[in-house]
Amino acid sequence: MRNLLLTICFDGANYHGWQIQQNAVSVQQVFQRALERILGGQPDIKACSRTDSFVHAREFCISFHTEHSIPCERLAGAMNHFLPKDIAVLSCREVPDEFHARYSCLGKEYEYCIWNKRVRNPFLSGRALHYWAPLDLDRLNRAAACLVGSHDFTSFCAVDARERDNMTRTVTEARWERQGGAVSFFVSADGFLYHMVRIMVGTMLRVAEGKLEPEAMERILTACDRRAAGPTAPPQGLYLNRVFYPVNP
């Protein structure tokens, strides 16, 4: 029995997230269909994360056990043959038996992309938020700095039917950068709550609009109440950028 780790990337514009949905097409559904054509069965695959509908991934990791002897390089090539053009396998390798794509993960980095010009960019439709109002990166980075550290992020978690667990996460980096009209928010943490990054972005855009001061982020964190934070930014600008594992998992 082999344990394989596949790293993929995907454009999420045509998918309702990673996880299989009852009445919608998901990345997992398409991935498993291609894998079954190669292996002749459906292994129990473990994913590094869930992603929301229409969210993209530049790096997304999947592990599964199989008795099939196909070499890693051939498996990656065969997957890319059967997968649609908006999903690609970047690499495949064998990992120790105890490795788990989700539970072995040390952290992740997300990027939220904004096109900050008055005129929209047609080439970024579905891939970046068009936000034409001025963005003061000094104010935004002051707000982002308040998020770094270990905090209860209840205020930055969408309210849904999921059972609540430990809402504390450790953010190791949060920063805004600009390259011309492209503005990005980067955030790394040991884990993320439901809609956490999108609520962070929506709240900090309120800071950019002058409706909140940057230091208000501290008050919002302390409130532990979703109603204290700003709106949830649209999913199309969000990318799972990197997934962190031990050096030699």
From TrEMBL:
Residues 10-104, 143-246 form the Pseudouridine synthase I TruA alpha/beta domain. It is an enzyme of class 5 (isomerase). Belongs to the tRNA pseudouridine synthase TruA family. GO terms for biological process: tRNA pseudouridine synthesis. GO terms for molecular function: RNA binding; tRNA pseudouridine(38-40) synthase activity. Formation of pseudouridine at positions 38, 39 and 40 in the anticodon stem and loop of transfer RNAs. This is tRNA pseudouridine synthase A. Its EC number is 5.4.99.12. It catalyses: uridine(38/39/40) in tRNA = pseudouridine(38/39/40) in tRNA. Keywords: Isomerase, tRNA processing. It comes from the Bacteria.
